[in-house]
Amino acid sequence: MEALKSKILTDGVVLGSQVLKVDSFLNHRIDPVLMSGIGDTFAELFADAGITKVLTIESSGIAPAVFAALRLEVDLIFARKRKSLTLRDDIYTEKAYSFTKQEENEITVSKSFLNAEDRVLIIDDFLANGQAALALARIVRQAGGEVAGIGIVIEKSFQNGRQVLLDAGFRVESLARVASLENNTIRFVE
Ligand code: G4P
Ligand code: NA
Ligand code: NA
């Protein structure tokens, strides 16, 4: 998506060779015009996929996901993150280990918001190692539903997340694919 790539080039800040800071339009301040375009693009990509729900994870996945859900005219559910949790039987729970943050999150979704008839589009802001998306997919499976695809705003293609998700059999659509952040320079996949 060209508008997104331009925004990354003008406003993205490279931190070392591994992390791209995009606080000015995605992770802290949100650019609603860009987000709206992102929603349009996801909706076009998955127009024929029979999506019944969009699923993301708090907090930064919510902005792009809400625009995708708006364009697809379906509900958005965001999984909640909790460090520890007493077991309850009215929620789906999965663990997601973050290599970036070196911590494990428990993510939860109320059982009343996903069901076996759902065809779910999973959306997230970043794809690094794919663990958040996999945990969301396991929650969809717990509900008996089907993952129709995974939409990512910014994929770090030098990490293994895309391959992990493809190996698991999922359709992955990333709107910007960052090939490298070496030498303080953002390079996209051709
Ligand atoms: P994974 O799901 O692909 O395995 O990713 P990982 O656990 O490694 O990512 C942990 C958190 O770090 C996620 O945010 C993810 O969006 C974010 N992240 C990973 N790489 C980058 C990067 O290069 N730049 C930025 N800006 N974020 C990155 P989170 O902890 O869920 O927080 P939130 O932003 O959703 O609140
Ligand atoms: Na994030
Ligand atoms: Na996220």
From TrEMBL:
Broadest EC class assigned to this enzyme: transferase
Binding site for 5-phospho-alpha-D-ribose 1-diphosphate: 128-132
Principal place of residence: cytoplasm
Subcellular location, record wording: Cytoplasm
Source taxon at top rank: Bacteria
Record key words, sorted: Cytoplasm, Glycosyltransferase, Purine salvage, Transferase
Pathways involved: Purine metabolism; XMP biosynthesis via salvage pathway; XMP from xanthine: step 1/1
Enzyme Commission no: 2.4.2.22
Function: Converts the preformed base xanthine, a product of nucleic acid breakdown, to xanthosine 5'-monophosphate (XMP), so it can be reused for RNA or DNA synthesis.
Name under which the protein is recorded: Xanthine phosphoribosyltransferase
Organism: Cohnella thailandensis
